[in-house]
Amino acid sequence: ELPPSEFMQVADSTWLVLSVVSNGREPPGCQATGVTKIARSVIAPLAEHHVSVLMLSTYQTDFILVRERDLPVVIHTLAGEFDIYKEESGECVPVTCDDVSNGFLKPKPPASPTLHPVQSPQTRFCVLTVAPDTLPAIATMLIDVLFYSHSPSWDAATSSQDLDSITFFSFSLIEGYISIVMDAETQKRFPSDLLLTSSTGELWRMVRIGGQPLGFDECGIVAQIAEPLAAADISAYYISTFNFDHALVPEEGIAEVIQLLQQRQESGR
């Protein structure tokens, strides 16, 4: 319904959403959450089959977006590990490989993925949710932060290779559930009794992936971050955007995360 505009850029792909639901077979003692929880079982296999994904963590769960044209490869890749369902008229219907086998070609082994640079600003972030019935009470503040607050210019935000801080605010509304990521200073502008966070109230630090806009055709970007964090059992909250990817990790673990990613960068050279 959005009118065409010279200011709006639209990717030339239609994307479908995958949500991964645990069936209770996860080994005891596995504490990792977020993107690292599904790194080995979903993200790594899709990267190996040259499927580009967008990753969206929310306060409640995680979603993987895949291009509609890649769906046959996705089904064939994941069917051995997962029961796969599609939604039809509000009901979940089982999907088999036979349903999408028409035109399926086994992909060629992908070339070694590009190891993109990562940056870790000093900004501290909060991951929050809001009860839907209280949203009107903070609507004016949300609009001000999203559209009118001062932010650095594009050139200033992208030219520095060693960012001390980063302007980042994420708001998602999915099936009635609200997720917000904001820096700790911005959080102070909101009524504290309306913003809900985990019982620990932990703060998060960010790793931003990409020295320039990443595009959508390359695969393995999420895996570049998710796999080493999964191996170290470190939770991560991951948000893919039109230009860059962002992984948030608990503040106390940022030094270990940077070390892990630097080691991966050096081993890939």
TrEMBL record:
Presence of keyword Chloroplast: no
Entry keyword set: Cytoplasm, Phosphoprotein, Ubl conjugation
One Gene Ontology MF term: identical protein binding
Subcellular location: Cytoplasm, Cytosol
GO BP term, pick one: negative regulation of TORC1 signaling
UniProt xrefs under SUPFAM superfamilies: ACT-like
GO CC field: cytosol
Cytosolic arginine sensor for mTORC1 subunit 1/2 ACT-like domain residues: 116-199
PANTHER family associated with the record: CHROMOSOME 1, WHOLE GENOME SHOTGUN SEQUENCE (PTHR31131), CYTOSOLIC ARGININE SENSOR FOR MTORC1 SUBUNIT 1 (PTHR31131:SF3)
This protein's name: Cytosolic arginine sensor for mTORC1 subunit 1
Lineage, uppermost ranks: Eukaryota, Metazoa, Chordata, Craniata, Vertebrata
